Structure formats: structure tokens, C-alpha cells
UniProtKB/TrEMBL annotation:
UniProtKB keywords: DNA-binding, Transcription, Transcription regulation
Full protein name: Mercuric resistance operon regulatory protein
InterPro entries: DNA-bd_dom_put_sf, MerR-type_HTH_dom, MerR_fam, Tscrpt_reg_MerR_DNA-bd
Designated gene of the protein: merR1_3
Domain HTH merR-type: 1-69
SUPFAM superfamilies linked: Putative DNA-binding domain (SSF46955)
Record PANTHER family: HEAVY METAL-DEPENDENT TRANSCRIPTIONAL REGULATOR HI_0293-RELATED, REDOX-CYCLING DRUG-SENSING TRANSCRIPTIONAL ACTIVATOR SOXR
Length: 139
């Protein structure tokens, strides 16, 4: 199959396929006499693996690492599992950070509801965001 068909069946663009080739994720295919690339089903499976890896949150580097291990005949299950577990921990940390940010913003929003806009006279500060006033209890 030619690059356009490979890309369409793999759910990416031809430019993406060329990029994956340029960084070594996809091997350069054989070329026909007319210069067109000729891809087999193996290339499609590899392309789908890369796409699915990214959808699962892995980086191209991580997908490439798994592909390299596969190419060398190594087992990848434990390695992949460790990667997935690391990504889960990262997501949990991001969620905790977002929840903390939400709590802070919620507190600011509640505080803003109680403020009188007429008291906002400082041309360099916003009383809603003046955290030092909230901490000191002056507001």
C-alpha cells in the first residue's frame, strides 16, 4: 500500500508517517520503480501501535522504546506495565494539584462575593486576588 492508504488506515496523516520514519519509529519502506513507498501490513500494525500508545498517554520515545525491545525479541510486558503505572502516578499527582488549585480558586471566588467593589481603590492591586489581605484577615 502507498503512504496515503497507510496513513488513512492508521488514522494519521502521510506527514505523520514520514515524521515517524525520520525519527526511527517506522522503518523506511521499500520503494517501487516509480519512487513511491510501498508499505506492508506490518507497517500498518506498527503505526497503529504508535497511535494507540500515544492515546494511552505514552510519549513517542516510550513507544519507540517498546518497539525497539520488540524488534530485539525482548518481552515488553513488565516494562510496559511499569510505564503505565508511572503514568497513573503522574496523573494522580496532577489531579491532586488541580484539586488544590480548585480549592484555592473556590475560596477566592467565595471571598470575592463578600467584597464591596466600592472598596477597591488601589490602582495597582485587585482586592479579589490580594492574598496577603485574606491571610491577614484585613478583608
Amino acid at each position: 500500500m502507498q503512504i496515503g492508504e497507510l496513513a488513512a488506515r492508521g488514522g494519521v496523516t502521510a506527514k505523520t508517517v514520514r515524521y515517524y520514519e525520520s525519527i526511527g519509529l517506522m522503518t523506511a519502506p521499500e520503494r517501487r520503480a516509480n519512487g513511491y513507498r510501498e508499505y506492508g501490513e506490518g507497517a500498518l500494525e506498527r503505526l497503529r501501535f504508535i497511535r494507540d500508545s500515544q492515546a494511552a498517554g505514552l510519549s513517542l520515545s516510550e513507544a519507540g522504546e517498546i518497539l525497539r525491545m520488540k524488534d530485539e525479541g525482548e518481552s515488553t510486558c513488565e516494562h510496559s506495565r511499569a510505564m503505565v503505572d508511572r503514568h497513573l502516578r503522574d496523573i494522580d499527582a496532577q489531579i491532586a494539584s488541580l484539586l488544590a488549585a480548585k480549592a484555592e480558586l473556590t475560596a477566592l471566588s467565595r471571598r470575592a462575593e463578600a467584597l464591596d467593589p466600592a472598596n477597591c481603590t488601589d490602582p495597582h492591586r485587585c482586592q479579589v486576588l490580594a492574598l496577603d489581605l485574606a491571610v491577614s484577615g484585613k478583608v
